Amino acid sequence: xxxxxxxxxxxxxxxxxxxxxxxxxxxxxxxxxxxxxxxxxxxxxxxxxxxxxxxxxxxxxxxxxxxxxxxxxxxxxxxxxxxxxxxxxxxxxxxxxxxxxxxxxxxxxxxxxxxxxxxxxxxxxxxxxxxxxxxxxxxxxxxxxxxxxxxxxxxxxxxxxxxxxxxxxxxxxxxxxxxxxxxxxxxxxxxxxxxxxxxxxxxxxxxxxxxxxxxxxxxxxxxxxxxxxxxxxxxxxxxxxxxxxxxxxxxxxxxxxxxxxxxxxxxxxxxxxxxxxxxxxxxxxxxxxxxxxxxxxxxxxxxxxxxxxxxxxxxxxxxxxxxxxxxxxxxxxxxxxxxxxxxxxxxxxxxxxxxxxxxxxxxxxxxxxxxxxxxxxxxxxxxxxxxxxxxxxxxxxxxxxxxxxxxxxxxxxxxxxxxxxxxxxxxxxxxxxxxxxxxxxxxxxxxxxxxxxxxx
Amino acid sequence: xxxxxxxxxxxxxxxxxxxxxxxxxxxxxxxxxxxxxxxxxxxxxxxxxxxxxxxxxxxxxxxxxxxxxxxxxxxxxxxxxxxxxxxxxxxxxxxxxxxxxxxxxxxxxxxxxxxxxxxxxxxxxxxxxxxxxxxxxxxxxxxxxxxxxxxxxxxxxxxxxxxxxxxxxxxxxxxxxxxxxxxxxxxxxxxxxxxx
Lengths: 456, 196
Known about the structure:
The structure holds 2 protein chains of 2 kinds.
Chain A: H1 4-28, E1 35-38, E2 44-49, E3 55-60, E4 64-69, E5 75-80, E6 86-91, E7 97-102, E8 107-111, E9 123-125, E10 132-137, E11 143-148, E12 153-157, E13 170-172, E14 179-184, E15 190-195, E16 199-204, E17 209-216, E18 221-227, E19 232-237, E20 242-246, E21 252-256, E22 263-269, E23 274-279, E24 283-288, E25 293-299, E26 305-310, E27 316-321, E28 325-330, H2 356-364, H3 401-404, H4 412-421, H5 423-426, H6 440-453
Helix pairs in contact in A: 2-6, 4-6
Chain B: E1 4-9, H1 18-27, E2 37-41, E3 49-53, H2 62-66, E4 72-74, E5 80-82, H3 92-96, H4 132-138, H5 150-154, E6 160-164, H6 165-179, E7 185-186, H7 188-192
Antiparallel strand pairs in B: 1-6, 1-7, 2-3, 4-5
């Protein structure tokens, strides 16, 4: 027996070594690999980091913005105020304000010290006649600029009394088509803008004078970032070009444009020099502008990358797109097994065989509505128990006044009528986008599906 | 069944904008919307090219892939159309399109948030062919009338070709043989290379 003891001990040692090795390997795979964080009930269009890096905000199709803690990516607050999908958000340089903007053409400015209170009321800045897709604060914090598809740039003085910002607003015209992005110069006296006309324009704010075109790309410029201290300008365009030029002589420092897939997002981290681009087919490309090396070039999603955010640790990257969730990717430690895995199927892109009624719901309604009783966040109210419910009657959902004052009771007939005539006719003034279903069978199949799917 | 395609021969386009004007006139396109436009790249520099561009009716259309409300459909002739009744004006297709085709009227005609508008290959929309409601929402349905898109018919240098993809590519191939070099079919690969 005694002769067996050393053998057993060796075996145990082997097992211990094996376990140690196993856990070392497991632990060495970063915990941040491909983490998903869900708070929204719709595509996430934009991510913005607070100046101190402690928080970031996501702006979503679901009419809400969510404030997240950067450390553990936990949801800190949810902001409701817009009457349509949100497109963008930005913090002021000192972090005292958060501005959001959306398809309703509104810019809302939220005091950040009240965001956790649960009943924060934003200052509403009206004036744009189209959706607002991008915002920028001036570095001195005195001015907010908004880029809109109405073809104008909104200039909102923030300095002396935010409540007067709407009254002292002005709109810069001169872009040929929608404006996609704006950024102030470091001295806050000039403004860069990019738009559908393919130009990156340079404006003097003292008299809103157009000074010159910095980039004449032909094709729409979707996103850009300027670092005046380093004298560089990076932009991405609809013809698939990711480019960095020198501001002084327009010399090309980086050009990536081998595939003609629109570039939709950019993030430039001035401190580290990391520059990221995201495109319409899920490609994320991350470069180090210090030596122009490509750090990462991978597909992070099966669909568009609406937004990128280099996190304060400079070790991870947040990615947002057509899904309800945002994903966190490690920048340097990159387990290869995650590279080729697309996200889960989207509810509004069903791939399996389903009935016509269910398909109508999935493809036309599910981006805004859930059928579940838990009232999971969506742009529209949950449809659970909708039959027999008074219009505007679901507790906890922020309805438009028009729907609250409506006396419609939802039934097969009224829902059918809603989609036959359209919400603008049946419930005028509603937040619901105008949708009609002209095919009577599709409507009947949808109503029939809803009757069975919205009950216990 | 023909597979309808556009081809813009950048070696021939003279930036006259006749295609843009013809389109606006034929379809009575709302103010502020250009279904077709002429883009000039390398403007004033060596290699300058002008390209007449609109919806290319892509084989694997990226607009269809990002639409959250399924408003796009492809006809059996390969024309990508959309329903303005279903469109919610989210703008996702605007960003996804490599040709900048989707347009958004600021307000009015199609609801306060603006329904998307784009080139229909002169093929109308989901309404009844050649009905007044189809014309009001989508413009004239020349394909139903047995005609090809007005922009290509109007092109004086025949830079812009429209029609059955095989015939269009044959014409272009003959041009390449005649002129001895192959550049010019701008956007063809992007729009149609993935499948058929």
